[in-house]
Amino acid sequence: MSDTQRFTGKVAFITGAASGIGRATAMAFATEGARLSILDRTEDPLRETADAVRRAGGEVLIVACDVSQPDEVERAIARTVETFGRLDIAFNNAGVENKAAPVADIDLDEWDRILDINLRGTFVCMKHELAQMVRQGGGVVINTSSGAGVRGVAGGAAYAASKHAIIGLTKSAALDYAKSNIRVNAILPGNIETPMMDRFTGGDIQKAIDLEPVGRLGKPEEIANAVLWMSADLGAFVTGAAISVDGGWSL
Fold first, then answer.
1. Residue 177 annotated among the catalytic residues of the structure
2. Which CATH number fits domain 11-245: 3.40.50.2000, 3.40.50.720, 1.25.40.10, 1.10.760.10?
3. pLDDT tens profile 54-73
4. Predicted TM-score (pTM) of this structure
5. Candidates 7, 13, 159, 249; catalytic one
6. Which of 45, 204, 236, 249 is in Cβ range 3.0-4.6 Å of 18 for a Cys bridge?
């Protein structure tokens, strides 16, 4: 267990928790005392995360959920509240990368797939998370955007569009709920050591490293640390922010 227990008694809801940033963030919250509801599209990949959380002394609920489907998300929130009694922190992290192609060559089904998961999924989760937080009197929502949310990406229009839109959604929601004791922020990771980065580069990680001014990829744990800061009292005056954690990639 961590010497710091900032989240004892708090309940954190994390999507895309089976690997990468989601898994690292689940572990970080668990070591600081939070109870966790972890989501991904299928249950099996979540078990490794759940086992690691339990080894760290955490309490965890596994929920298989397609975040683009409102009924599934509503049930996931309901199960979380039934199990733990409340929802204090939501980290909307589920997302997918696009198949690289210039705009004129993007298949419409591929466009819809990216927007459904990355943007619609974030909105659907927020809709139900925020309703619960209003009922209980407060909470924190953090959405995963990207460095691609503030700059263009050749061959990545669908992904960049979804991540730009998440920032606008975040800022608008922050204003909607500023007087409801609810903070809403976005985190913008750069090139991070994750399975998604392996897929995006076709295994040629050096291509991603070459894009980073600091000369290395970020670690999922470095994103997790930023999420925890944004979720804790240390970030109590921060809402509507889009915070880059990207080694200077988006400058």
1. no
2. 3.40.50.720
3. 998 999 999 999 999 999 99
4. 0.95
5. 159
6. 45
